[in-house]
Specification:
The protein contains five helices and two strands; from the N terminus they run αααβαβα. It is mostly helical. α1 packs across α2. The radius of gyration is 22 Å and the shape is globular. The termini are far apart.
């Protein structure tokens, strides 16, 4: 795979993952016909290559190189595994009182004595 081919694949894969994360309709489309879904992002595979979608891999960080290698070897192995990592929700935690005191509109509280325009 040339560097340009790799960049094209990574860009398409990144858009695909972002769209699946953002839109439940696209997520269902991926599940119903992954080959057609890939084609919609310019990622075309021969008909004899099986496509398997792996979602929400537990205890694993997304590894872009593994995805690139799966794409690169798909024709020779006859299989392409599309990894779509889960979008983990941002943890909801409460800040302690001292943490709240240290943050004022993104500024250190020592700068919060007056408006930012008069501090130079």
């Amino acid at each position: 795979m040339t560097p340009v081919d790799r960049a094209v694949f990574v860009a398409a894969y990144s858009r695909l993952v972002a769209d699946v994360w953002a839109d439940p309709v696209r997520e269902r489309a991926l599940e119903s016909d992954p080959r057609e879904f890939l084609a919609g992002y310019g990622l075309h595979l021969p008909e004899d290559v099986q496509v398997r979608v792996v979602r929400d891999v537990a205890d694993a960080d997304p590894d872009l190189q593994v995805q690139v290698e799966s794409w690169e070897l798909a024709e020779s192995t006859g299989a392409f595994v599309l990894f779509v990592p889960s979008l983990l929700p941002v943890a909801e935690t409460e800040l302690a009182e001292d943490e709240l005191d240290s943050v004022v509109a993104g500024l250190d509280s020592s700068c919060a004595c007056c408006c930012p325009c008069c501090c130079t």
